[in-house]
Amino acid sequence: MDVTRDSEYSFIKMINVNSQIIINKVSSYLQSRIAFYVMNLHIKPRYIWLSRHGESQYNLEGKIGGDALLSERGVQYSKKLKTLVEQYIPNHEKLEVWTSTLRRTQQTAQYLDYPKKHWKALDELDAGSCDGLTYDEVAEQFPEDFAARDENKFEYRYRGGESYRDVIIRLEPIIMELENQENVLIITHQAVLRCIYAYFMNVPQEESPWMSIPLHTLIRLEPRAYETLVTRIKADIPAVSTYKEKGTAKLGESNDKSKILAGEVISSSSGAKVAS
Ligand code: F6P
Question: So which domain of life are we looking at (predicted)?
Fold first, then answer.
């Protein structure tokens, strides 16, 4: 595209990735969002580190939402996370740690002595009227909602709360900021991590709410030009499963390998590769 010859067209031209950007006839809201997005892209090799908070008291009780503190094993994970960071994150001296504003993520970051940012946008999906209930209680007290959520988990919005689509929208500034960063560890929640993970892994929207993101696992994303590589490092500290399969209120994952994306490498923190 040439500014003189093609002046009547809307286009964004990147020269040498983003050492120079030409924005021609960009006017609508969507076009300007795209221009902003493109301006934030870079191709420097980098990792993005992700973790859920350590196991919480609510996780032990099978309750959703809330602002609970960590269980004993959750605290163990927060200590272990410091070791994992030092062991696995190159240049960890320059790391920045992002958490949500909820206590369980900040408690998980308590032994990480790096600059921290607490983002409201990283708070867990708001379960509205169901906050503080177990899935069994949701199924009993709000049977129609329970079925509707299973039917279309991406679009279902809790009464007085949020849907996965809502979470994605509020994550936009995080994604923009992340595209610009080189060394970040994000400690957040199951639903939020699914959304971030799905963005980098190009997972279709309707599948993203069903992805497996277990507790006590450090995830490394390595964005490349046409794909993102993933490594999961398990911390070897037991935790409950907070995964609810479709059609049941019970917690726990069947050993369905399809939930682990092709190309993911799973290692234990002892260094042993356990699956791929
Ligand atoms: O159970 C842990 C939790 O983080 C809840 O607080 C939250 O409501 C839930 O996971 C989100 O997962 P799902 O969308 O599968 O219900």
Answer: Eukaryota
- Phi first, then psi: give them for residue 48, nearest 5 degrees: -120, 130
Q: Which residues contact 65 (CB under 8 A, 6 or more apart)?
A: 58, 124, 126, 127, 130, 131, 132
- Could you tell me the distance, in angstroms and rounded to a whole number, from the CA of residue 65 to the centre of ligand 1? 7
In angstroms, the CA 214 to CA 18 distance is 36
Structural domains in the chain, CATH included, are 1-41 (no CATH), 47-274 (3.40.50.1240)
Protein residue with least CA distance to atom 14, ligand 1: 191
Q: Is 190 in the pocket of ligand 1 (CB under 6 A)?
A: yes
Q: Active site includes 140?
A: no
Q: How far apart, in whole angstroms, are the C-alpha atoms of residue 17 and residue 15?
A: 5
pTM for the full predicted model: 0.89
Q: Tell which residue, 243, 239, 196, has the closest CA to residue 217.
A: 239
Q: Is 52 a catalytic residue?
A: yes
The per-residue pLDDT for range 146-173, each reduced to its tens digit, is 999 999 999 999 999 999 999 999 999 9
